[in-house]
Each structure stands twice: as C-alpha cells, then as structure tokens.
Amino acid sequence: MTPDSSRRRLLQTMLATSGGLVLPSLHAAPTTVPLLTRPIPSSGEQIPVIGLGSWITFNVGRDPQARAECASVMRQFFAGGGRMIDSSPMYGSAQDVIGEALQAIKPPRLFSADKVWISGGARGPGQIETSRKLWRVPHFDLLQVHNLLSWDEHLKTLQAMKKQGRLRYVGITTSEGRRHGEIEKIMASQLIDFVQVSYNALDRDVEQRILPLARERRIGVIVNRPFRQGDLTQALAGKPLPGWAAEIGCTTWAQALLKFIVSHPAVTCAIPATSSVAHVRENLLAGTGRMPDEALRKRIAQDVERLA
Amino acid sequence: MSEWWTYSLSDFLMFSQRSYYRLIALYNEAVWPAHLLGLAVGLAVIVCVARPGPQMRRVALLALALAWAWIGWAYHLERYADINTAGPWFALAFGVQALLLGFLAARPHGAAPARMQKQVALGFISLAVLAYPLLALGSSHGWEQSEVFGIAPDPTAIATLGVLLGCRAHAVAWLIPLAWCAVSGATLMELRVGHAWLLPTSAILAVAAGLLFRHSR
Questions:
Q1: What average pLDDT does the segment A114-124 reach?
Q2: Which of B21, B75, B83, B90 is the best residue to mutate to test the A interface, defined by the most A CB atoms within 10 Å of its own CB?
Q3: Taking 50 as the threshold, does the pLDDT of residue A93 lie above it?
Q4: What is the per-residue pLDDT across B130-145, written as a single tens digit (0 to 9) for each?
Q5: Residue A32's pLDDT is what?
Q6: Neighbours of A101 (CB within 10 A)
Q7: How confident is the model at residue A24 (pLDDT cuts 50, 70, 90)?
C-alpha cells in the first residue's frame, strides 16, 4: 500500500468514525493554482472542469451534523474555484441541503445544474419551481431532463424557459450506459446545450459515438459516476500508482481517474460526489496542472483495467 | 422505465449507510423514552401469545395495530421520507397493515394454535423484542441506533410474523410484513449491513412454519 492510498483509507476511516471531521494537517493545503476551465460550446462561457455531484452524499435528511459537513464540502469547493453543482429531485433531501448551504455561503460564481424528473410535461414546471425554492436561487443556470423521463415534453418546457430568460442552458442526462441510442438521437435532432453521461477509465462506451457527436453538435458534456460510485477507487486502493502519475501531478488514484476523464477534449466538466472536505480538495487538484495526452490516456485506461 | 433489466438494487438506493443510521439515531433521540413503552408492549405481546384464549390473541393483535400505525406516521412519514422518496408509500402500507391488524383483533377467532406452532411463534416474537435491539451493540452503531419493537419497523415486522403465526391469521395479514422484510432486507444488503440476512430469513422461516402448521391442532 502506497503512502497516498493508505492516507486515503485513513481519511475514509476517520470519516466513518468521527462524523466527517477531517484534520487539515493530514492533507495538502488548498491549491492556489487555478482550475482548468473549458468553454461551454454553445456560449463560450468558461466553466471549471471539476464540479460537484450530490447523489447519495448530500441526501442526509434533517441531520444537522451531516448538513454542516455538506456545507463545509461546498465551502471548500467554492474556495477551490469550483462552480458547477449538480442535483435532482430524485436525490431526496440533497436539493434542500444544497440550498441551505448556499444561503450561508453565498458563492459569487455558482453554476446551478438541476434536473426535471417527473412523468408528464404538464407537471414539469411545478417540480422545477419546487426545486428552485429548495435551492433558494432566483433561477437555474442549467436544467436537464433526468434519465430522459418524458424528455420530449420537458425539453419543450425548458426551451421555452430559456427563451424567456429564466434559464441559461438546457440538457439531458443518462447514467451507467443506459439508453445511449436514444441520447444520440436527441443530440442529433434537438437543440441542447449539455448532455450528462457516465464515463470513466473502465466505462468508455461514450468515446465511440456520444463524445464525438457532442463535439460535432457543440454540446457540452458533463460526466457523472467518475469513480463508479466509489467502487473504482476502492478497487484501486492499495495498488501503487504507476510512474505516469507523477508526470501529470497525481498523488492519488482519484486524481488520476479524474484527469483521464477531463482530459478528453469533448468533456466540459466531471461531477464527482463526496461528503468529505479532504476528497473535494483532492478532486479539485485533479483539475489543475498537466493533463494526460492521448497516448498517456491509453496507458491509464490499460492500467486501470488491469489493476481494478 | 425502459431497459429495466439493466437496473440493479443499488440503483434504487439513494442514501448512505451513515445517513440511514444517523436517521435512526435522531429518531430514537426524538422519541425517547417511548422505547421503554415499546419494550413493555413487546413483553405483553409475548405473554398474550403464550397464554391460552382468543381474548389474549386479540390484545396482541391490537397492540401490533397501534405499533404499525405509530411507525407508519412517526418513522416513515415524519423521518424516513426525508431521505427515501418511497417513505410516504411505506407510511401508507403501514397504515393499511394497522387497519388489517385492528380488523383481525375485532373478528371472532378460530382454533388455537398447536403447541409447537405457539412455541415457534414465541421464538419469533422474543427474537424481535429481546434480541433485535442488541444488534446495534454488536455492530459499529451503538445504543443510540438500536432498533426496538414498536418504535422501529424491522423488529416490529418480525414480531408481527410471530403473532400472525400464533394467531393462525389469514394470509392477507401476512403480505405487508413479508413485503417489508423483503424491502428492508434488500435495503440493508445494499447498505452492506452485517445482519441484513435476518429479515428475509425470518420471512422465509415464518412462511415455512405457517405452511407446516396450517392443518395441525
């Protein structure tokens, strides 16, 4: 076990037993190196390549201790230059947890990304308004049709909101390789700004068609499940990082996995979810410094496949 | 839900183990010392099932009805729904089960259970009332996350299977407790909780016992 992977395991153990408190001295100080940004293809707006997801990690109910920890994660995220936070009505109490923290933090450059997840287009506006109130924001930057549920009806709603100036970007989502055929059809035929898909060093199906199509159609790509919900980092824990990690400034597998993702030219932003301040710092560092080129990306994928 | 075959149980799990047990701890803190009442009612249910006579069985069923109603409201609707979008549906199911148990309590009762059947029934109820709360001690969770009969759904469901067995209750009354054992057992398995096997195993054994004893006198 390398010092870095054992450090990650130690941090995980401490989180499990101490309610999420992390001793800052055990991890590097926040980087002052700015986060790499990518332009959103439809507008040119620059967005940092590392965002923050909220599936499971922010669904903590009314637990005040856990809510405070989530707020600390968000505080660190914004302090490190992060902008995009992604959530959904499907994520239980996550939206409310985010909204409560946003009220306290008041970040200057939030990029709010949420979803509409309800069957029937007529019910979409009501759910969107409920979500907006939970976030405590005047409007969302991006709304996405979650897992393509009633996508044709909801896209009409979202496009109308965009025309009215109540929304800046429109997108669609899927995860774990589902419904890629339908995703491609929508990307090819509809005017959307973003597509959200699962992509990592093992799950690379999107490289064949969706990512090239996104570049062709000038659609931004948001990547979910960068660590397969922790399974990938757990499988690699204890495995020494290969020599190429130092070439690209990675001290942990999580950073290597994120750099693999965000170094793809079609990817706009990855949204790893975490309830750990130490991990959000670690993740943000992956958005800085040297990125792997195509040859190194191939090596990374091969090594991850071999070791995981 | 298209491509339904690509979904696994983990896709429906929307919270972490930590959030789940923190919910239980905060719930326990909020309703304490109701656990003492739950324990007392649980012991009373054991006594009622152990004693002969339909009146005692009615009392046990009525006590269970009140427990299911309480859990449906205080746990599922008021708390579990915060982290599980299915919470309100669970609350509804627990309310229906409360009504069913109340209806059974009011109905005339048939033949008494056979001796062995009663003993097996008491085994289930005792496990749920006396042993289940101690599981928290054997895990990393601690007393504050203990699950007590009449307060928490899992031991209440197991105890209910025992009472239904001991009362020779109609099969309809078994459906919701069995479904809960399946749903909660699956949740605990996905959360990688050590004793997750207890709920589905209890359900299978209770059904087996019910089928075995259905004709015995």
A1: 96
A2: B83
A3: yes
A4: 999 999 887 777 889 9
A5: 60
A6: 24
A7: very low
Q: Which two tokens stand for residue A106?
A: 């008041």
Residue A10 has pLDDT above 70, yes or no: no
Q: Which of A58, A60, A91 to mutate to test the interface with B (most CBs of B within 10 A)?
A: A60
Task: Give the chain A residue whose CA is nearest to the CA of B140.
Answer: A17
How many residues are present in chain B? 217
Contacting residues of A for B16, CB less than 8 Å apart: 56-57, 59, 275
Whether the Cβ atoms of residue A257 and residue A282 lie closer than 8 Å to each other: no
Q: Which of B6, B14, B22 sits opposite A63 (nearest CB)?
A: B22
Smallest CA–CA distance from B22 into chain A, residue: A63
Q: Which pLDDT value is given to residue A101?
A: 98
Residue type for position B2: S
- pLDDT attached to residue B114: 83
* Averaged pLDDT for residues B29-34: 96
Please indicate if any CB of chain B lies within 8 Å of the CB of A56.
Answer: yes
Q: Which of B3, B16, B82 sits opposite A178 (nearest CB)?
A: B3
Amino acid at B189: M
Q: Do B83 and A275 touch (CB under 8 A)?
A: no
Spell out the long-range contacts of B23-28 with Cβ–Cβ below 8 A and sequence spacing 24 or more. Answer: B23/A61, B23/A63, B23/B79, B23/B80, B23/B82, B23/B83, B24/B145, B24/B147, B24/B152, B25/B141, B25/B144, B25/B145, B26/A61, B26/A62, B26/A63, B26/B79, B27/B74, B27/B75, B27/B79, B27/B151, B28/B144, B28/B145, B28/B146, B28/B151
Q: Do B14 and A177 touch (CB under 8 A)?
A: no
Per-residue pLDDT of A164-192, as tens digits, reads: 999 999 999 999 999 999 999 999 999 99
User: Cα separations (Å) of A198 from A175, A221, A264, B114, B160?
Assistant: 5, 10, 13, 57, 43
Task: Output the pTM of the full model.
Answer: 0.89
3-state SS, residue A61: coil
Q: Which of A163, A164, A160, A153 is nearest to A172 (CA)?
A: A153
DSSP A35: P
Window 256-275 of A, Cβ < 8 Å to B: 275
